[in-house]
């Protein structure tokens, strides 16, 4: 905690072991993406929150600001990044995980958060269908939590149909775009029932 608010701790979520897994955008989608140079090598289907938790039982907060940050981390780890209630956001959080306003402008040319998350989630759905030999169809985005640093890492909750005409089922997708033209699918799975 370099600034007393503990904001640096959010970036200590360790990435899983690495191997290349990425998807390429269609020509139409490339028009809405910037071009760059780096690539991601996240392992498909591995959640960086697996096997990790945040326990502050040994740490005594020195002030209300630190206590607020501990609550935020506990909430973030419990939801594995996919749910971040507004009242859990520390007042002075500069970086880390944030709820995305789906209907607000997010990126040129005139994309809302919902539009951008739909593109990102579709990459994960396509990878899931190919890998698992499924026919999952994205219906709509419910919410998204993002982490901005060298790009966008998105934790997207969405509704999908597992078969044509099937019931809507809640799913989660985790994707990343690190300032290049490829969006990388990290995972796609049914939302946990808990």
Automatic annotation (TrEMBL):
Compositional bias, Basic and acidic residues, is annotated for 28-38
Identify the stretch(es) annotated as Disordered: 20-43
Listed SUPFAM superfamilies? Cystatin/monellin
User: What protein name does the entry list?
Assistant: Cystatin domain-containing protein
């Amino acid at each position: 905690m370099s600034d007393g608010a503990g904001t640096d701790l959010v970036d200590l979520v360790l990435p899983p072991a690495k191997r290349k897994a990425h998807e390429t955008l269609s020509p139409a989608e490339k028009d809405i993406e910037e071009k760059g140079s780096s690539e991601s090598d996240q392992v498909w289907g591995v959640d960086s929150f697996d096997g990790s938790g945040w326990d502050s039982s040994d740490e005594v907060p020195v002030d209300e600001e630190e206590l607020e940050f501990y609550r935020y981390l506990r909430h973030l780890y419990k939801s594995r990044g996919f749910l971040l209630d507004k009242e859990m956001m520390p007042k002075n959080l500069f970086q880390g995980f944030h709820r995305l306003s789906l209907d607000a402008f997010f990126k040129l040319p005139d994309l809302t958060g919902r539009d951008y998350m739909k593109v990102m989630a579709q990459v994960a759905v396509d990878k899931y269908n190919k890998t698992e030999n499924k026919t999952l169809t994205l219906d709509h985005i419910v919410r998204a939590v993002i982490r901005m640093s060298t790009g966008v890492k998105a934790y997207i909750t969405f509704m999908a149909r597992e078969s044509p005409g099937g019931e809507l089922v809640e799913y989660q997708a985790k994707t990343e775009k690190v300032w290049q033209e490829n969006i990388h699918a990290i995972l796609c799975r049914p939302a946990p029932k808990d």
